[in-house]
Amino acid sequence: MKDTSSAVSPPLIERMPVRLALLALGLLLLMAQHARGDDLTVLVPSEFPSLSVCNTVSGDQNMLKYHIYSRLYTFDEQMQPQPDLVESESVSEDGTTWTLQLRPGVTFHDGTPLTAESVKFTIEHMRESNCEQRVLYEQIEDVRVDSETQITLVTSEVYPALRNNLAHPDAAILSQPAVESLGDEFGQRPVGSGPYSFVEWVTGDRIAVTRNADYYGGEPHFENINFLFIGDATTRALMIDSGQADVALRVLPSDVERLEANEELTVERVNGRNMIFPFNVTEPPFDQQAVRLAANYAVNKQAIIDRVLFGAGVPAQSLVETVQYATSVGFYEYDPERARELLDEAGAVGAQITMLSPVGRYPQDSEAAQAVAGYLREVGFDVDLQAISDWPSYVERVESGDFSLFMLGWGGSTGDPDNSFRRTLSTPFAGRLWNPGGYSNPEADRLLNEGANEFDTERRAEVYEEFQRIVWEDAPWLFTFRAAIFIVQQADIGGIKILPGTEIPIFWEATR
Questions:
Q1: CA-to-CA distance for 199 and 223, rounded, in angstroms?
Q2: What is the pTM of this model?
Q3: Which residues contact 119 (CB under 8 A, 6 or more apart)?
Q4: Which of 283, 299, 321, 235 is nearest to 45 (CA)?
């Protein structure tokens, strides 16, 4: 009898006729491709503290909110507000009464209906809370529920930016039962009505969402999206290059050439937010305009773009160049001699300053901050540069006001100048996020208010141009450059939308 105890059976495919083997192999490959096609893996540079709509500290946070929540309006790829939950609108002749007809039959992820009462609850909840983002609703004076699908909003003044405010990711419509039952945990277990519903948040690792089959806007292609927190940019580049992920956000400019050589990848350059260093204008030495001007003249912006950013940027010529009505109002040339003269005239030579920089929040952020600090030292500042790697800790330090200047990327999350400039440069926000340096200028406030209440687009443009010129000359910020970022994706993925200025990618219409 033949001994077969040690014989190894050949694999199934090897024992098949060639034609059947090829069919089986094709089936296996098809199954693997189908499994891969159902899920999307996105590499995110930094984690954030919450998905509550109360406060926003990062664009990555807003990216998740766009997928989980719905809003009355939403932004298109030109940052223009388009109807979302709103089916139709009418505005009174005096411009202060907005009557909105809502989509019928929309439900939250917890199964409760989204009605006009949900809108009323959201607005009142946000206005009564101690949230920074209540500013989105501050102009709304009265909210009237006309029917289950109709609501009327009355503004205190003419306010043409209302649609933009209501398209912001933090203008998400909330489920009252979820907010009341979850309480402080709502930000870690959010309930929305958007294209994806929340599944889990593994701190330090990932956030997972799954497709909302009942989404009114059409079923998303990807069943699941896993947002992985990968803080190291080199690791993100290696993972996308080796096929371990589908999308990598904000890869370094230094990695772009290598990634572009990979035919299985697509690299997209996005000209994004302005990188600024707001000063603490309430304390020496930056309480003096001359010292603020000195800092602006001290820094060689083009050299930083060329040598640190590998060309991924352009020098700033205005406050925030991604919002509507942005205009070029000037440029602070590199003039170290002028900077030294201004410092000397102000009696601030040798002034000690504390400069804060994040690490890994923006491309080459700490390296760019080191270069800025070096230029400031060359003209006579005594700079203590403190780099903080944890983004929530960085925001907490900024919010405390313990700095002379700090690094911030700002792109205007509503597309309209009112929200963007009001939060960073108006007196009511002085000492608050994101105006922790306390900038206050009565003439700037007057122009902000005039622009906010002006429906005439030509007049509005004139007002905001004057506002930008006044602030530019007052120099409450060290203006540096408008940064470009790079988003890398597998070449078989299409349909990813990127909102300009905010640099936020949208995946619910993406396909493989």
A1: 12
A2: 0.81
A3: 72, 85, 100, 102, 143, 151, 173
A4: 235
